[in-house]
């Protein structure tokens, strides 16, 4: 008799637990927050918002974007580490966090501990000069630099984001040296070129409208393939320099998010990428939509970091 | 061009667009009133809503938010000594004092009218001189900026009514506070003591709200100042409007502030912020009674308010003609343009002139709407002053908390703000002025960045500041500004000796 | 009086000086990260000394100034509550914090009637909700009340 009661209790408990487990399997059951380390209105924030909107329909739960700009993304990432690893808080980061910022500056968190979820796009990169400049190709420009050491300046929007990396790589490969003058954003950096202070601009999206309407000439993009909206802009590789740098928009979670949850989020994001609004924003900001699942983006970032570290050491930017 | 303008008006005066402008300006005013609540976040939030609208209507609405904010921020500055936005910090200085003297209505009216004049003339400026001015602005390089910042800093002593030594000291403290955070050129952490909150530096919102708003509350609460309160004795229309004398006194400042703000607004790098500070300094400099500044005179409100609105208009020029946004708000407007498939820039006049003129003419409409909305509401807002202090004080606190928090969703910003509130209180007690600190804090990082950029361009040679003409001119202005009191004294002595001899 | 403020500023300058020394001072083209903080520390040090010296020359009295007016308790309570708001906002959530804060200040510090207190709390909470959560979608921290909140 006692055995029976005991078994019944055990059965009840097992049922309750399995119900609990199934309850978890029906993730999500409450709103999801996507953290964004960049300011409102930029390409990171807006693409995230469009995805969030689409995902709200897909997951039948509100998905909201919370901007926490500051420290080049450090503030938002610190916030991520304080969140529970249950998949209800995720973040959109640029690749630069994992392979530049983590080396150059010492964050209080370890970005490599974060759980990779997926990647949805590639940032546009351009090397651009003023339209009345004498250089029509990258070769011309590099030739000029070689003949005029110490005179050439490039403007960038940030002291240590990915747009500096291809320039460092070129410096190393071609044995040239240029001055990279950082500005507090893309717009002032572009203004510096238009005003004749810097000879070229290396950066993300800001030059693109100018390339399109003719006030600036794009020399190359650092991506592996030409960008869909600027089909006439050759890649650096096509121009004869073996340098490819791609910075991706990647979604990560706090350390320890369970794999089933990762899968659900991954699929939701992938479906959200089909939304017309997302595509529209990508088009406007020249973000190349491109899907990578969690394993792919993890491998991508680790490879990138492995490639970047020796360059940074060689350039003296970090010690061993 | 006249018919382009007319086409523009026909677009902006369409019922639909008037409606959108109205929404934008109302939202903007509300956002401006609420301290710290960034127009940036608001525009970003409303952006997706505009996808359904056509591009002109979308921009009209979003732009409305932009200048609505400039109007709204004045309210809290005058009534509660809480700077709503960084551009209204200067208004706190004399505006709040005017409120204490019972002249809050006058201050608000002049601010509204000055703002309207500033924006309107600014818009005219946009129409007439946009492209050439934009190209001139581009020639401002790092060296020119450095010299401009230096010239701006020399105005520091004019911002304070107390001892110059203390003003300069406060400026030094302000410069130091500006260094907290990431080094602008190399990105190294400085003075952050390991705190994540400080990683991005001390934001001006908790700083200004703390020093002014919370500091004021603490001072009131502590009770050594009599709680005479700000109760308006009567809410009669006469007391709400400026007196004839005040009108007369305002004309000069408004006239000077409009072009000043406009030019500063065009410059890349947030010149519009500086506009109000520089206008205040300028007014004090040319005034016949500089010692009255800080006690609540109308010139201290008329000038800065006008300047920051014409600066707002000026900031549109690089956006529309070059496609370059130089502050968060114009950046968002650019995003809005791009999402709708329009690229602002030199081609906009050729490719989409109706967008350009539609937006520009709607700025008139919007500003006019704001004036019409705000003037009658002043009487309503004054009633806030009637709330007895015991209730008003904690409410001011709450408003400040929300403002500080909503900046980056970080509750520690509130703690930072309260800390500065305590500091502000101590500063009042020990007779130090907050204004030079804030000016230096705003200018400092820009100065440092430009200085180091200039040296990078010149490979370390200091000559660049003198060989470039604009920079040289600005530096001479700065020099004159410092030396002029000395020179004045010298001249007077010479005159005296000469007349004695005669 | 100025002795105290001058002294405090001098100490601050000293602190700054040592902090600045941990950074690189001079870089490739000119000043590096630590240059400006260092110079400013020196400047502030000089200025604070000038203030102290001037106070001495002008024979400022060293009497204890009344830092705290008659209502010391109120002042400290306000200060404490202000800090508390910041520290506990995330844990308790905005609305609970608002209620607690206003209740405490209005009733106990400012000695208002219960009617006034509750009235103000109600109005503030309502306005906060409609303005911030509904209209402007500002994410206010929810704390334990998060179950009640479903964002739009």
Give short descriptive properties of this protein.
heterotrimer, A: 320 residues, 11 helices, 11 strands, C: 152 residues, mainly alpha, 2 domains, 5 helices, flat, disordered C terminus
Task: Characterise this structure.
The complex is a heterotrimer of chains A (320), B (502) and C (152). Chain A is built from 11 helices and 11 strands. With 320 residues, chain A is an alpha/beta fold. In chain A, the strands form 2 sheets. In chain A, strands 2-1-3-10-4-11 form a 6-stranded mixed β-sheet, with helices on both faces. In chain A, strands 7-6-8-5-9 form a 5-stranded mixed β-sheet. In chain A, helix 2 links the parallel strand 1 and strand 2. In chain A, helix 2 packs across helix 9, helix 2 runs antiparallel to helix 10 and helix 4 runs parallel beside helix 11. By secondary structure, chain B is mainly α. Chain B has one domain. Helix content of chain B is 74%, strand content 1%. Chain B is built from 21 helices and 2 strands. In chain B, helix 1 crosses helix 16, helix 2 packs across helix 16 and helix 5 runs antiparallel to helix 6. The longest helix of chain B has 35 residues. The radius of gyration of chain B is 23 Å and the shape is globular. Chain B starts with a helix and ends with a helix. In chain C, helix 1 runs antiparallel to helix 2. Chain C folds into 2 domains: 57 residues; 80 residues. By secondary structure, chain C is mainly α. The chains are: A alpha/beta (320), B mainly alpha (502), C mainly alpha (152). At the B-C interface, helix 3, helix 8, helix 9, helix 17 and helix 18 of B face helix 1, helix 2, helix 3, helix 4 and helix 5 of C.
Strand order of the largest sheet of chain A: 2-1-3-10-4-11
| Shape annotation of chain B | globular
Unreliable parts of chain B: 227-236
Helix % of chain B is over 70%
Largest interface: B-C, 62 and 68 residues
Secondary structure layout:
The complex is a heterotrimer of chains A (320), B (502) and C (152).
Chain A: H1 2-25, E1 32-36, H2 43-59, E2 63-67, H3 74-82, E3 89-94, H4 96-104, E4 115-122, E5 126-130, H5 138-147, E6 153-156, H6 165-174, E7 179-182, H7 186-194, E8 200-203, H8 208-213, E9 216-220, E10 248-253, H9 259-272, H10 276-285, E11 288-293, H11 294-314
Chain B: H1 2-12, H2 15-33, H3 39-46, H4 55-80, H5 89-100, H6 104-138, H7 142-153, H8 164-179, E1 181-182, E2 189-190, H9 204-222, H10 237-240, H11 244-266, H12 271-286, H13 299-322, H14 328-339, H15 348-351, H16 353-382, H17 389-408, H18 412-429, H19 435-457, H20 464-467, H21 469-501
Antiparallel strand pairs in B: 1-2
Chain C: H1 2-21, H2 35-57, H3 72-92, H4 94-109, H5 114-135
């Amino acid at each position: 008799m006692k055995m029976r009661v005991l078994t019944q209790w055990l059965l009840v408990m097992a049922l309750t637990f399995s119900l609990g487990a199934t309850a978890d399997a029906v993730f999500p059951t409450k709103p999801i927050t996507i953290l964004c380390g960049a300011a409102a209105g930029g390409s990171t924030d807006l693409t995230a918002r469009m995805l969030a909107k689409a995902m709200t329909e897909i997951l039948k739960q509100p998905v909201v974007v919370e901007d926490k700009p500051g420290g080049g993304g450090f503030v938002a990432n610190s916030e991520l580490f304080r969140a529970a690893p249950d998949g209800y808080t995720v973040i959109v980061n640029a690749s630069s966090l994992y392979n530049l910022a983590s080396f150059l500056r010492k964050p209080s968190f370890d970005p490599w501990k974060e759980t990779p979820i997926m990647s949805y796009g590639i940032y546009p990169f351009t090397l651009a000069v003023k339209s009345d400049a004498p250089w029509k190709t990258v070769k011309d420009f590099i030739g000029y630099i070689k003949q005029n050491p110490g005179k050439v300046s490039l403007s960038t929007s940030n002291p240590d984001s990915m747009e500096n990396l291809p320039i460092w790589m070129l410096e190393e490969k071609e044995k040239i040296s240029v001055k990279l003058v950082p500005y507090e954003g893309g717009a002032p950096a572009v203004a510096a070129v238009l005003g004749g202070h810097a000879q070229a601009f290396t950066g993300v999206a800001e030059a693109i409208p100018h390339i399109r309407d003719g006030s600036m000439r794009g020399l190359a993009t650092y991506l592996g393939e030409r960008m869909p909206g600027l089909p006439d802009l050759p890649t650096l590789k096509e121009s004869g320099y073996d340098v490819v740098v791609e910075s991706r928009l990647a979604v990560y979670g706090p350390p320890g998010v369970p794999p089933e949850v990762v899968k659900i989020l991954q699929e939701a994001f992938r479906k959200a990428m089909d939304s017309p609004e997302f595509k529209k924003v990508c088009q406007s900001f020249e973000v190349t939509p491109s899907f990578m699942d969690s394993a792919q983006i993890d491998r991508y970032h680790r490879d990138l970091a492995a490639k970047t570290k020796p360059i940074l050491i060689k350039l003296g930017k970090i010690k061993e | 061009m006249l018919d382009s303008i007319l086409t523009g008006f026909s677009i902006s005066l369409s019922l639909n667009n008037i409606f959108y402008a109205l929404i934008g300006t109302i939202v903007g005013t509300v956002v401006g009133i609420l301290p710290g609540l960034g127009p940036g976040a608001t525009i970003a939030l409303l952006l997706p809503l505009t996808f359904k609208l056509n591009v002109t209507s979308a921009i009209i609405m979003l732009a409305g938010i932009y200048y609505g904010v400039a109007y709204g921020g004045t309210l809290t500055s005058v009534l509660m000594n809480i700077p709503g936005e960084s551009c209204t910090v200067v208004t706190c200085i004399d505006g709040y004092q005017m409120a204490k003297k019972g002249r809050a209505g006058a201050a608000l009216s002049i601010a509204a009218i000055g703002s309207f004049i500033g924006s309107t003339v600014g818009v005219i400026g946009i129409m007439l001189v946009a492209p050439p001015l934009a190209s001139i602005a581009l020639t401002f390089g790092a060296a020119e900026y450095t010299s401009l910042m230096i010239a701006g800093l020399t105005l520091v002593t004019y911002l304070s009514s107390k001892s110059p030594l203390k003003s300069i000291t406060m400026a030094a403290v302000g410069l130091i506070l500006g260094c907290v955070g990431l080094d602008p050129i190399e990105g190294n952490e400085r003075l952050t003591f390991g705190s994540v909150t400080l990683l991005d530096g001390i934001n001006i919102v908790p700083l200004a709200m703390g020093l002014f708003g919370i500091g004021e509350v603490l001072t009131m609460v502590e009770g050594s100042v009599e709680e005479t309160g700000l109760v308006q004795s009567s809410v009669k229309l006469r007391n709400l409007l400026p007196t004839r004398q005040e009108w007369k006194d305002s004309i000069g400042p408004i006239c000077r502030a409009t072009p000043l703000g406009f030019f500063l607004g065009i410059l890349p790098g947030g010149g519009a912020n500086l506009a109000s500070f520089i206008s205040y300094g300028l007014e004090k400099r040319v005034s016949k009674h500089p010692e009255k500044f800080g006690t609540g005179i109308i010139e201290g409100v008329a000038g800065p308010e006008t300047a920051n609105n014409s600066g707002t208009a000026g900031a549109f020029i690089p956006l529309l003609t070059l496609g370059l946004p130089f502050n968060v708000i114009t950046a968002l407007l650019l995003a809005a343009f791009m999402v709708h498939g329009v690229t602002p820039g030199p081609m906009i006049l050729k490719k989409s002139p109706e967008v350009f003129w539609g937006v520009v003419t709607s700025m008139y409409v919007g500003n006019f709407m704001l004036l019409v909305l705000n003037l009658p509401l002043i009487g309503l807002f004054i009633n806030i002053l009637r709330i007895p202090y015991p209730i008003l004080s904690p409410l001011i606190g709450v408003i400040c908390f929300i403002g500080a928090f909503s900046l980056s969703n970080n509750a520690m910003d509130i703690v930072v703000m309260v800390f500065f509130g305590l500091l502000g209180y101590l500063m009042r007690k020990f007779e130090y002025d907050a204004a030079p600190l804030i000016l230096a804090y705003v200018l400092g990082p820009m100065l440092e960045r430009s200085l180091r950029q200039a040296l990078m361009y010149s490979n370390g040679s200091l000559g660049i500041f003198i060989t470039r003409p604009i920079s040289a001119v600005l530096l001479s202005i700065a020099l004159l500004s410092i030396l002029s009191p000395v020179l004045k004294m010298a001249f007077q002595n010479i005159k005296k000796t000469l007349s004695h001899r005669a | 009086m100025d002795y105290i403020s001058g002294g405090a500023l001098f100490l601050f300058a000293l602190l700054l000086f040592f902090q600045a020394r941990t950074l690189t001072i001079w870089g490739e083209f000119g000043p590096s990260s630590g240059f400006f903080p260092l110079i400013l520390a020196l400047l502030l040090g000089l200025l604070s000394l000038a203030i102290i010296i001037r106070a001495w020359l002008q024979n400022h009295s060293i009497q204890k100034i009344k830092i705290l007016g008659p209502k010391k308790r109120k002042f400290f309570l306000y200060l404490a509550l202000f800090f508390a708001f910041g520290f506990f906002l995330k844990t308790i959530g905005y609305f609970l914090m608002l209620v607690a804060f206003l209740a405490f200040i209005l009733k106990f510090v400012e000695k208002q009637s219960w009617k006034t207190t509750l009235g103000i709390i109600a109005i503030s909470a309502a306005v906060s909700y409609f303005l911030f959560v509904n209209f402007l979608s500002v994410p206010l921290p929810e704390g334990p009340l998060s179950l009640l909140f479903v964002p739009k």
